[in-house]
Amino acid sequence: MKKMLALAVLLSVVTLARATDERVFALTAAGDVDAALVADVRTQLEQMSGAVVRAAEPLALAADLSMDEIGRAAAQTMQATDFGIIVLANVGADAPQGVCLPDEHFGVINVTKLAVNATAGQLTRRVMQNALRVESMLVGMSVCPSPLCTLTSYETAEDLDHMSGNYCPPCQDRFTRLAGELGLRLLTAEPAPAAE
């Protein structure tokens, strides 16, 4: 009985230690980005990827920084449990749609570029799709050949409106596997209510 109790205590300690070591993605804004957009993207990103996303404090940065500089500044603010940071920034219509440097643990999404000719709903979806792409690149995934996957190639922001907002099943499985191997905290499905 004492051995069983000791084993149970040891298992609990190991489980708690592992839970505190789990990593998460951080999501932040740099500059004048609508807080409601950031919140919507965070919620949808967690639902679509299954990975926990921490809302990080917005960054106050100089307006003339490049996307790489914004990303590096954001990476400096990462907490010990952050695996990578995704930055939503208004960089300008002449800048690229985004940049992702997995080795430096950040991705920056240019909200200004994605907002061109977009309704509020389209903008949220475009940003979320790009955030999902950044998450996948940060864990080591690449472009998917399936036209039914959000990781398929595209050229313009308008192309995103006609693409899937989800991973294809093989990419979702691969993301979940890679995220688990990297120690990322994944959302767990809520248990079904007990039948009465």
Structural summary, described in words:
The chain has 196 residues and is an alpha/beta fold. It has one domain: Collagenase (Catalytic Domain). It has 7 helices and 5 strands; from the N terminus they run αβαβαβββαααα. Strands 2-1-3-5-4 form a 5-stranded mixed beta sheet, with helices on both faces. The protein starts with a helix and ends in a 15-residue tail after the last helix.
Q: Which helices and strands occur, and which strands form pairs?
A:
Elements (H helix, E strand, L loop, with lengths): L1 H20 L2 E7 L4 H15 L3 E3 L11 H9 L6 E8 L8 E4 L4 E5 H4 L5 H19 L18 H4 L8 H13 L15
Parallel strand pairs: 1-2, 1-3, 3-5
Antiparallel strand pairs: 4-5
Helix pairs in contact: 2-5
CATH fold group: Collagenase (Catalytic Domain)
User: Regarding CATH, which class?
Assistant: Alpha Beta
The total domain count is 1
Q: Mean of residue pLDDT?
A: 87
- Number of discrete helical segments: 7
Residues in helices, as a percent range: 40-55%
CATH architecture: 3-Layer(aba) Sandwich
Instruction: From the alpha carbons, calculate the radius of gyration and give it in angstroms.
Output: 19 Å
**In sequence order, what are the helices and strands, one letter per element?**
HEHEHEEEHHHH
In short:
The longest helix has 20 residues, at 2-21.
Summarize this structure as a short list of keywords or feature phrases.
43% helix; 196 residues; globular; Collagenase (Catalytic Domain)
